[in-house]
Amino acid sequence: MRTKIGKLTKVVVAFVLCMAFVIVGVSAALAQEAKAVNLSTSAKAAAVIETSTKRKFFALNEDKKLPMASTTKIMTAITAIENCPNLDEKFEISPKAVGVPGTSLYLRKGDVYSTRDLLYALMLISGNDASVAIAEHVAGSTAEFVTMMNNLSAKIGAKNSHFANTHGLDADGHYTTAYDLALITAYALENDTFKEIVTTKNMKITNGAGENRYLKNKNKLLSTLEGCIGVKTGFTDDAGRCLVSAVERDGMKIVCVVLNCGPMFQESAALLCECAEQFKLYDLTEQYQLSPSVAVTNGRKDSVQIGTEGHFVYPLSQQELKKLRFEYSCPESLEAPMPKGTQIGEVKIFLDNDLLFSEKIFTIEEVKPKSVVQRMKDFFGNWVA
Question: Mind telling me the catalytic residues?
Answer without folding.
Answer: 70, 73, 126
